[in-house]
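We examine the record.
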Amino acid sequence: MALRRAIISHIGWIACGLGLLLVIGPLLDIVGVVAFNGISAFSLELFTTTTNGTAGGLLNAIEGTLVISAGGMLIAVPIGVGAGIYLAEYGSNKLGNIIRFLSDVLTGTPSIVLGYFSYIVFVTTLGWDFSVLAAAITIAILIVPYLARITELALRQVPNTMREAGFALGASEPAVVFKIVLPGATSGVVTGALLALAISVGETAPLIYTAGWSNYLWNGKLTNAPIGYLTYVIWTFIDQPDARSHALAFAAAFLVMLVVLAINIGVRLIIRRTKLT
């Protein structure tokens, strides 16, 4: 029996190892290919010049990604955090259950569907054309459910004794929520915001329908002015027949990968610091 258990245990460990290789192998291959081709395409011109057709640099795409992501976060964070506060503090009712259900539905909706919706509403019906505002609102719609649910979970981790202590000292309900509970859940809320930022940086489909594309730097207009972004370069330039286009696509992919990696490292550091404290 002991020999049989040892054999089964070894077979199990081997199967787990093979499963791990099947997961890690393709990931390492993708990261390696993107990193090798992306780093080889890095140059001063890449960060200082705008795209010229399928050549030039990525300054306009980098700027556009930052503008769209910042705009989306400015819209989504107040709404998402506010919704999370309501769900955590007052959402133990039918309305809260409906909001949670709709949030889960929206989370599972393909991003291209949101892009098509925004194209019909903002680009054509409202006449905004391809623009920063249409793109930012679409990104905000995409990430609000994540922010709301993560904020709710973070606030529910705050002990009820802290709330009771605030009420015992005579604090009003808004004061307890915003001065005691929310600061106590800051790390969780920031983690949710960073994860939402990572999602916004890596999106392509919604922006194709709302941001369009521009070879120029953003002119400051919120509507009726398309803007460049990194994921468009990845999606479009890799299909071009020339090596320069491929180099720009790999460079853009590597930049997006670095940003997402930095955000995830930041999230893990916050979580680790929270556990230590």
The beta strands are 51-52, 55-56. The chain has a mean pLDDT of 88.
